[in-house]
């Protein structure tokens, strides 16, 4: 073989091997970066992101965008290097996202459960802000179980065997005096339907010696209309604040956003307290790219958010749903809301 050709082959071999490694070898890292944003006042796939049925709603303007973080797994060495060099993606050890002993399906299921919980909490926080009174509210119904087909998630339980129950403590106290097999009469209210009465034969549960109704309940504000959140393929709890703001905006006169493009993030609980989230800088980048000029930041994320460089994106600090509404109203009036 010609010496020159042999030298060329020897020189190219490491490059070829490295190229194969870049394409074939996967790395134990997950990439996090800016994800899509969704206007909670708008539509996705022909459906309102926040739809209210059974109550008059008010027209809205502007944007109240929730933000997300994109996630890429099973990266090749080449993909990981490309994403890292882009400066917009963050590589973190895979075990931090998918802990050992948990499958991808387990993690996805947990994220979906968190998202469903964020929807429920967002509704309750908004209803509380709007001064709807609390009730013993059915969160879930065990199926199969004694109440399956009789009670539904969202029902408000008013009486058990003719005795009013104003809160979960009273409701649980009543059940503790029952026995498996006993039939109880439940008076309830159902959204967008007439109030009803059902009789339920209590079941048994290995964790208790009293009757098992087969429902999980909580003290939460209750309204006679339905709030639906129509956003699929999004996980985690961080959409809560923006969902709550959309509910408030649609059920009250006047626009929270005005003509502005507002984006934000934050968990929310039933009492309307806004909580810390992850990936704040990625969400800010996504909001800025989408055209937002104001970003609502949970108070505990302010330090990290302030370190990001997103020119033209005003950071507004929020701690509660009430504070977020007040901040948006101040912005519309030309005032100075709390900032990071």
Automatic annotation (TrEMBL):
Catalysed reactions, semicolon-separated: Hydrolysis of proteins in presence of ATP
Superkingdom assignment: Bacteria
Any one GO molecular-function label of the UniProt entry: ATP binding
SUPFAM superfamilies reported for this sequence: PDZ domain-like, Ribosomal protein S5 domain 2-like
Pfam family, one: Lon_C
Transmembrane region(s): none
GO biological process per UniProt: protein catabolic process; proteolysis
Keyword Translocase found: no
Keywords assigned by UniProt, alphabetized: Hydrolase, Protease, Serine protease
Active site positions, chain numbering: 238, 283
The EC number(s) this enzyme carries: 3.4.21.53
Residue stretches making up the Lon proteolytic domain: 233-331
Family: Belongs to the peptidase S16 family.
Protein name in the entry: endopeptidase La
């Amino acid at each position: 073989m010609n010496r020159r050709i042999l030298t060329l082959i020897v020189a190219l071999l490491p490059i070829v091997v490295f190229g194969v490694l870049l394409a074939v070898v996967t790395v134990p890292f997950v990439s996090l970066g800016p994800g899509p944003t969704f206007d909670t006042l708008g539509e996705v796939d022909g459906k309102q992101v926040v739809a209210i049925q059974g109550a008059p709603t008010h027209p809205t303007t502007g944007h109240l965008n929730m933000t997300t973080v994109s996630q890429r797994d099973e990266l090749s060495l080449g993909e990981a290097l490309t994403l890292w060099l882009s400066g917009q993606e963050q590589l973190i050890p895979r075990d931090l996202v998918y802990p050992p002993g948990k499958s991808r399906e387990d993690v996805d299921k947990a994220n979906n459960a968190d998202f469903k919980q964020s929807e429920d909490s967002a509704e309750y926080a908004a209803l509380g802000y709007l001064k709807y009174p609390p009730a013993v509210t059915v969160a879930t119904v065990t199926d199969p179980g004694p109440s399956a087909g009789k009670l539904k998630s969202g029902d408000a339980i008013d009486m058990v065997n003719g005795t009013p129950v104003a809160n979960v403590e009273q409701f649980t106290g009543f059940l503790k005096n029952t026995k498996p097999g006993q039939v109880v009469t439940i008076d309830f209210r159902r959204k967008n339907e007439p109030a009803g009465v059902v009789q339920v034969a209590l079941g048994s549960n290995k964790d208790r010696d009293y009757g098992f109704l087969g429902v999980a309940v909580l003290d939460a504000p209750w309204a006679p209309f339905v709030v639906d959140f129509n956003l699929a393929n999004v996980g985690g709890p961080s959409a809560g604040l923006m969902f709550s703001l959309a509910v408030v905006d649609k059920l009250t006169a006047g626009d929270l956003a005005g003509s502005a493009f507002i984006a934000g993030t934050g968990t929310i609980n039933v009492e309307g307290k806004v909580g810390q989230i992850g990936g704040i800088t990625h969400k800010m980048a996504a909001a800025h790219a989408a055209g937002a000029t104001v970003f609502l930041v949970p108070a505990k994320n302010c330090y990290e958010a302030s370190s990001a460089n997103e020119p033209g994106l005003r950071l507004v600090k929020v701690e509660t749903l009430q504070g977020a509404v007040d901040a948006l109203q101040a912005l519309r009036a030309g005032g100075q809301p709390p900032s990071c």
